Every structure is written in structure tokens, then in C-alpha cells.
Amino acid sequence: MSTTADTADHTPVFSVDGLWKVFGPKADRIPGDPELAALGPAELRARTGCTAAVRDVGFDVRKGEVFVVMGLSGSGKSTLVRCLTRLIEPTAGSIAIDGEDVRAMDKARLRALRRHRAAMVFQHFGLLPHRSVLDNVAYGLQIQGVGRDERRERAAEVVAKVGLAGLEQRRPAQLSGGQRQRVGLARALVVDPEVLLFDEPFSALDPLIRRDMQEEVVRLHREEGRTMVFITHDLGEALKLGDRIALMRDGRVVQLGTPEEIVGSPADDYVRAFVRDVPREQVMTVRTAMRPAASAEEAGSGPAVRPDATVSEAIEAVARAGGPARVLDGGRCLGVVDSEALLDVVAGVTGAPAGGRAAGGAPGSKDPGAAPAGLRAPAALATTGEEPV
Ligand SMILES: Nc1ncnc2c1ncn2[C@@H]1O[C@H](COP(=O)(O)OP(=O)(O)OP(=O)(O)O)[C@@H](O)[C@H]1O
């Protein structure tokens, strides 16, 4: 199934509005009290003994997108994502999954939500040490009451899907860290949840294995189009995986947007500092640098690049051709990019197209414009010919 902009279904999977989670004594009074709600973290703690881990957050998670929640340690990422399935009880606000009110669910309904609809992949998977890989994966089905043969068959399929074929009978202790992560991923996948929630699953892995696992997530997402919510404190990981990123600070979402919007149009100085060292040409797309063709001749000649090609890829095409490149979408020329405009993007003189903005307390993602962009697979480009490859 395709997961990208060609999917017309924009129904949100999760819809979150005005969400608060306050820890501490008489936490309930904070969200409704404008004076207390306006206090900074230190002052709030001093005055009330409370910590507002999530402060008035709103966003939608769209079907088929990878929604990344990013922020430094303590910014509220885990608390926010745990509130989605009420592993942590919210203090105020609303959460819906497919339009159903999560806060109104009884215990049985919540159990079903966590088992069937929104499976969580943790950093420490808590694999059962005395069970084989296959049985660990099948366990999720066992607690659902699926019969033995069927669950072993389905588990074997998913074990193969995450690249562990041949290791079915090993115990967790006989696996590397990365392989254990794959077992955890398989265990979440086997129940075929509508949405996968990842809580910093790769942060304990060494960089090479971490990259493998990120690529695994990209591949699975591309193949299956499953909706994913992914927590990370790593900006590179967020930019690589996210269709959209919610950047958190002190419990608030300070900006919600595509990687391109966050890097190209930071909402404030905090975000600007956060993204300062990102190689812009690898995140920004040619849309940012595009201008209308000056003449029919310009619209009809020169190398072709796709609209989602990165600036870095376009620079290569322009350098090879020695002149402007055309941005082609299904054979239609949307505009052209030249070396000057591309360099402006690299230098930070040009921002991202409209859309990246502070989310504040408003329902952050209710902007109708941008459809899930799909993962940024390197947009291949052609240096000659009519169609960008
Ligand atoms: N049970 C709790 N009781 C009190 N305060 C808590 C509790 N859980 C979290 N907090 C506080 O809430 C804030 C947000 O914590 P949270 O774990 O959600 O952040 P995080 O962004 O996920 O951090 P990390 O990346 O370190 O996991 C922190 O200030 C934390 O100390």
C-alpha cells in the first residue's frame, strides 16, 4: 500500500487536543488555573510542588505517516506518548483514536486498544528469557487467544519480515542487541496494530546497528504504510524517519512540521539553535529554491529533478548540466532551479515553504495543506531526458 501523498485518506488516527499531564499534589487544579498554567517549570514546582510534563498539547497523527516526537531529555516525550493509550492517565484534554474517545474507555476497551490497535515498542523489550525467538513473538498472539498453530505460523512470517529467519529457536540471551530489538519489533508487529508507538527503541544501540534499525523502520513503513509514532531525542533520527516532527520543550510542542519546515523555518530561537548544524541541502527540497521558468525554452530543456529531490541532489544535476534544472512532476514542469537559488538555500538565505509554525496550545497539525510526505527516500534524478527517474 502506498503511504504517501497519493493516499487520499486524511482521517487522523490519533487526535489530541488541549492535553495536559501534571505530576504532583492536586495536579488537577493546574490546567484550569490560568495563573498557575502560565508559570515556568521551576516556578510551578516551587509554588505547587508539581511538574507539568505535558502542557496544553494538540496534534493529529494522520493515517500512514511517521509522526516523530522529538525533544531533549525531560521535555515530556514519553509522558505524551504514554498518555495516548493511557499508560499514563492524562490530567486534562482530549484524545481520540479513529474518532473514539480514549479517555472514556473502560478497562476492557483500553486493554483491547493496547493489544490490537496501538502496540508499543520499548527500548527494553522485556523479552521472555526462557522462550525462543518464535515464542516471544507468538506471545502477543497467545494473550489474544489465537490458537497454537496459527500463532506460530504468523510469528514465523513476521520473524522473517524483520530479518531474523533462521534464528527462530534462539533464546534472547543468544542474540545481539540489534537482533533483540528486531524481536521486540516483531512482537509488536505480529498483532497487526493500526499504529506502532516507538519509545526511543534504538537509543541504546551502537551507531551502525542503530542505522540498520532505522533503515528497517523505513523499509517496513514503505512496505506496509503502517502509522507510526516515534519518540527520539536524536535530531538526525527524527529528520530521517519523520514525515512530521513535533518538537517539544518543557512539555510544550514548540513547533510541528515537516523536517523541511523545521529546518527551513524554525519557529523560534530555540528551534533555530536546535537545527543549526543540520546540513540544509540534505533536508530541504527543490521546492524551496524553485522559480517559474523564464521562457518556453527554459521550461523545455535542461536536466529534470523531482519536486521532492533534495537541494543536494539538484546541485549535482545543475553542476553536471552547467545550467538550471527543471522540476518535473509527472511530466509537468513546475518550475526551474538554478545554482544561485540552490546556494541560497544552503546558506540559509531562503526558508522553507509555508507551513512550519509554532504549535503552541492550538491543535498543532490541523493544517489541511500538507499530506503525509512519505519517507524521504533519496529522490533519484535524471540529468537528461523528460522524466525524472
Ligand atoms: N512519575 C513522575 N512523577 C513526577 N514527575 C515525572 C514523572 N514522570 C516524568 N516526570 C517528569 O516529567 C517531565 C517529562 O518526563 P518524560 O519522561 O516524559 O520526558 P522525556 O522527554 O521522555 O525524557 P527522556 O528523553 O529522558 O526519556 C520530566 O521533568 C520528568 O522528571
TrEMBL record:
Keywords for the protein's UniProt record, in alphabetical order: ATP-binding, Nucleotide-binding, Transport
SMART domains: AAA (SM00382)
Transmembrane parts of this sequence: none
Chain ranges of the ABC transporter domain: 39-275
Region (Disordered): 354-389
Pfam families according to UniProt: ABC_tran
Low complexity composition-biased segments: 368-389
Superkingdom of the source species: Bacteria
Any one Gene Ontology molecular-function term assigned to this protein's record: ATP binding
Gly residues compositional bias, start-end: 354-363
Protein family (similarity comment): Belongs to the ABC transporter superfamily.
Protein name: ATP-binding cassette domain-containing protein
Species annotation: Streptomyces viridosporus T7A
